[in-house]
User: What shape does this take?
Amino acid sequence: MKKIVVIGGNGQLGSCIRKIAPNFESNYEFVFADSKMVDITNEDLVQSFIADQKPDFCINASAYTAVDLAEKEVDKAYAVNAEGVGYLAEACKQNKTVFIHVSTDYVFDGETNIDYSEDNFTNPIGVYGESKRKGEELALENNPQTIILRTSWLYSEFNKNFVKTMLNLFAQKEELGIVGDQYGQPTNANDLAEAIMTIIENPYKTYGIFHYSNYPETTWFEFAKKIAEFSNSKIKLNALTTEQYPTPAKRPKRSTMSLDKIEEIYKIKPKHWENSLEECVEILSN
Ligand SMILES: NC(=O)c1ccc[n+]([C@@H]2O[C@H](COP(=O)([O-])OP(=O)(O)OC[C@H]3O[C@@H](n4cnc5c(N)ncnc54)[C@H](OP(=O)(O)O)[C@@H]3O)[C@@H](O)[C@H]2O)c1
Assistant: This one.
């Protein structure tokens, strides 16, 4: 029996992994650690936890994910998204644990029309993206057995996310403005959880960075329109420009990622975002 430790076990992605864990329990023992059990910014705690558990795999589903607040809480964002990731990767190396870490499309500046591949130049334009990029570097430096999955626009039936925010707003308002000039790939965190388990189950591991999201690209406005359609909402949606909806943190204009590498190496076929969204809205509407 192999052991999988999930750090950030109560977060959105952590909850999606917990949901599918019973499907894998004949081969894997799962340990879910929330931030009270393991605060990843505490190096000693991280070291002793991983040494005690000696997992075969450690999935880091924890992060500081408040993109706008990160512009003010720079140290906090770096402590969790960079240094804490470094501690986890180092502890994993010492215990021969495969480290599976999750990162973001916000490591790119979004100023290109090509779909970003894993080896494209990173150039984050906000503190959140910068701190996540530093975390990627530390993870790869500290443990050669590291797999990083960059994902984007994550949502699910768990925790706070765009889909749940929209459904709440649709119930309160008659009209809503949504940014229509930022492009990316919405991703159901349940699909990401499945992709992580597919990688874990593959006996021939390729380490390094991989992109995983749903496809193809869309805008926040089109994403919101589909949420309205699938939830039978009569809300009137208006497309806004980024200038009309200023936020403390800048967002990439087009952070669309190429998904070829994960398909080629791990045979993981990304799902169409509309199908995955429909499943999620159905769960949330019942
Ligand atoms: N959400 C998105 O749109 C999005 C997009 C691209 C990439 N990602 C990446 O995807 C991954 C999963 O995101 P998510 O949406 O599942 O995040 P989430 O719901 O915000 O969950 C993050 C979890 O991290 C935990 N955490 C925070 N600080 C911690 C610390 N010091 N020690 C241990 N745990 C700590 C939190 O626990 P507490 O609540 O107990 O503090 C929370 O459960 C992250 O790496 C994120 O950067 C997310």
